[in-house]
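User: Could you walk me through two proteins back to back? I'd like the raw sequence and the structure tokens for each, with a short line separating them so I can tell where one ends and the next begins.

Assistant: Of course. Protein one, sequence then structure:
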Amino acid sequence: MIRKYLLPVLAAAGALFAVFSVMSARKSAPVPPPVVQPAQAPFRSYIAGAGIIEASTENIAVGTNLPGIVTKVFVKVGSRVKAGDSLFTLDDRELRSELLVKQSNLVKAKASVEEAKASLQDYRTQYARVKGVTDSRAVSVDEMEKRRNAELLAEAKLESAKAAVIAVEAEVKAVQTTIERLTVRAPVNGEILQINVRPGEYAQTGALQKPLMLLGNLDRLHVRVDVDENDAWRFKKDASALAFIRGNREMKTQLTYERTEPYVIPKKSLTGDSTERVDTRVMQVVYSFDRSQLQVYVGQLMDVFIDAPPVAATKQPQEKTNRGKK
């Protein structure tokens, strides 16, 4: 009797459980509140864009003209430097050995000049003696010509020795210049933002994925804002702009217009991923603000709102014009 009703009861229980699971799954989960409230636009009509903070000189990726092993780093992250200050230097032992050889060659070349001068003076004295003889029978014409040619040859050897000195001096200066190039110096006044090279590491030339050093002037910070190309025609450079720090909408600052990049570029999603996707095209507008107004850092993202006329208001004059034509 029990076996007769066991299977139908289990089937009914399974069906009820399936219905209960489906109904439970259809219930929408409660939306969790945001960790922080997003920034709200202070204008009735506006253009919104993501901005990234950068140095007023832009972020300068410092490189090296010559590859080599780093022997010393003179700065730390956050160090303030002036244009021409040493940042780091490469191993110069091989070049300094070459410089010693060139300098010894220079000493030898200068000695050759003195030797050529002495030889020239000797030949001039000999030629002057035979030239001053009044009796043509005492000195033959061949002897006269021989002494004269010897003097001319000595003069030529002196000029050649002087030219050799100039050539060796140029070689010494070339090696000294190369040694000087092994010390990388700051191109502008600024602050060290990042250091990716240390003593003992090999510094490569060219464009690197990670720059050897990152440098910029932070006396006044810039914000590079991506304005969607669909809103580019609404942008006015004299319009008010306000920037909010992500994570705290109470921290904000008024922006000062600096310039508009005249070339529209593909936008990259600022995800931090090395393979960021390109989803649209943007016009980049650069604003600035005083560093003392906000405690922010280079590379930090900001939400920027730019005052702009409503779309309907900007289209209305054109519609009126079209009606007038009709």
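----
Protein two, same layout:
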Amino acid sequence: MARSDLLISLVLAGKHSPDPRFRSTVEAIIAEERSKQHTALADQLSAALLNGVHKHAPQAATGSTVVGDLLYELAPERSLDDLVLPRLVRDELRRLIEEHLRGELLRSYGMAPRHRLLLVGPPGNGKTSVAHGLAHDLMVPLLVVRYEGLIGSYLGETASRLRKVFDYARQRACVLFLDEFDTVGKERGDVHETGEIKRVVSTLLLQMDQLPAHVVIVTATNHAELLDRAVWRRFETRLHLPPPKPSEAAEFLGRLFANFQLASGYKTATLSRQLSGATYSEIEDLFRDIARRAVLESPEPDFAKIVRERLAAWKQRVSPAPTKRRR
């Protein structure tokens, strides 16, 4: 028999082993085969481990069949170097990346890279972009959980689907991203919640504990106060992403305009001073609005006039009223 058939036979024979090291070892082998672009073998090993079957054809959709409605798999295009981040946040992310790129050295000393990251902060300040940047710089796919497929209406359905998400992620080196993390990591003592949230959180904790180091799980929340206390303890790295300082907003705006050919020569200092309190997302939205008008009025747009008009419209935009989240 070929080596691949030997491996598959071994997985089929041992898939019910009570020793957790068997499963973690097979998942590491699958992740390594995927990193080598041995997709057919990785899919066959995955099918043998998850379903107890040997699929001879290269079933690229095996994983998608299990979690096709639960995940987006993306190839991120934005690096961490493209982001404007507080120095502490950037330094910690760089250290985490180094740990993974030099993981063999850590493992030779009986240690593993950190791979559980919690991002906290108000919306629009880079939490999702950090997940994309990490995946880009680690050169792995980004798996984004789709809550519309994850949250079920029947008893135990959400917990079952959550297990499928983690089963899929464990078999490849990747970044697994859960935005709005308080949806599934909510405090179990919340008197307004049913017993279902307790089952979901218990499943989440178990799956996070079993997650191998080659999967970097990144979670993001705008409401850290809603997270279960046991969930907090699972994260080796917890970072706060605040709104940009004036200098950071100016740097971000300058980068946007520097990469836009029609804005050649435009000085952003005056504009940046008028964006006090804006999030990165709001600044980028304004830039795109300006860029659209400039393109439509090309080849010789009156750029200063466009900026004044779009800034005036941007200042008149409707903003949401502040609300209080229920505990």
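The chain has three domains: 3-60, 73-240, 246-315.

Let me know if you want the two compared in more detail.
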